[in-house]
Design a protein that fits this description.
The protein is of the alpha/beta class and 126 residues long. The protein has one domain: Roll (2,3-Dihydroxybiphenyl 1,2-Dioxygenase, domain 1), CATH 3.10.180.10. The chain has two helices and eight strands. Strands 1-4-3-2 form a four-stranded mixed sheet. A hairpin with a 5-residue loop joins strand 7 and strand 8. The longest helix is centred in the N-terminal third of the chain and has 11 residues. The radius of gyration is 15 Å and the shape is globular.
Length: 126
């Protein structure tokens, strides 16, 4: 039986831009990865012990850059800080309150075209 989500994997062509987005802007941490025979990165939530995002570099990206997964969603904190970092980096985003309240959803795209959702509890939004 399924117990929960383990990780997402994306294919990326620009290592620096991809890591700058996920680590620099969104706060994930580049961490331990098995010695595969292809380049990549495993990213962890700060203090986490399980990689939540696997990145594969050096494989051709699908054309067009679409697929069956609509987006990946992360639980997040510090909405004002995240917005400020995205604004400073010129990353467009869509911010909306979940119908019924309780959650703010910020949607943006990583440099590789993957749609990313960040979920912020309303109680934690200043």
């Amino acid at each position: 039986m399924i117990h929960g989500m383990n990780h997402f994997t994306i294919v990326a062509d620009d290592r620096e831009a991809t890591l700058a987005f996920y680590c620099g802007l969104l706060g994930l941490v580049d961490g331990p990865r098995p010695p595969f025979d292809f380049p990549g990165a495993w990213l962890y939530a700060p203090g986490g012990t399980q990689a939540v995002l696997h990145i594969v570099f050096g494989r051709p990206l699908p054309t067009p850059r679409t697929g069956v997964i609509d987006h990946m969603a992360f639980t997040a904190t510090d909405l004002p800080g995240v917005k400020a970092r995205l604004d400073a980096a010129g990353v467009p985003y869509d911010l909306r309150e979940l119908p019924g309240g309780g959650l703010w959803q910020l949607f943006c795209h990583c440099p590789n075209g993957a749609r990313v959702e960040l979920d912020f509890a309303v109680a934690g939004v200043a």
